[in-house]
Amino acid sequence: MSAEDAAFAVLGVLGDPVRRRLYRHVAAQPGDVGRDAAAEAVGVSRSLAAFHLDKLVEAGLLAVSFRRLSGRSGPGAGRPAKVYRRAEGEHVVSVPPRSYGGAGRLLAEVVENAGLDRELQAAARAAGEADPEAAASGDLVELLRERGYQPYWDGETLRLRNCPFHALAEEFPALICGMNLALLEGLASGEWAPVMDPCPGGCCVALSKKESH
User: Fold this and answer.
1) Mind listing the domains of the chain with CATH numbers?
2) What angle do CA 153, 54, 47 make, to 5 degrees?
3) What is the 8-class DSSP label of residue 211?
4) How confident is the model at residue 50 (pLDDT cuts 50, 70, 90)?
């Protein structure tokens, strides 16, 4: 199967609305999700959730492992439960085929080799500040969710489960993470403070509310 056919197959798996809701819920969580919790989150039965979750695993969209959700061990602790998390890797398809990733890598390489990090950060910050959606929304958490960052609260810190620039950040970490921080500084209102604070498997930036004086 070609890469394009594989990507189309993944899209087909996500054609079911229940399956899409389950995937979005599991992918947005910072930890593993059990069948009961997933079923409750999307409002379906446990058996239906289990069926669709396993289909998402077969498609390579979710990964599965086993652990005891009770936290107990030893005799009487019960059998390990099947838990799910977002799988590593990306699935991209466009009709007709495009190669934006290749162009992005080429541009990033030129910028990095030319030492234009500060210019890129300034442009990213200005783009965030001028973003009409940010000005209209006023809800940074929802804006980040719509942009694919998958924000979640870790105490009083807003962490980002997903990096929308993951592929480029893997190749050019300093350049792309610096750009991302600057972009989020521009998007964030005056009450938010973005800082470099990577979370495992997620984005390099975290945000917290600024202290009021």
Assistant:
1) 3-86 (1.10.10.10), 118-209 (no CATH)
2) 90
3) P
4) very high
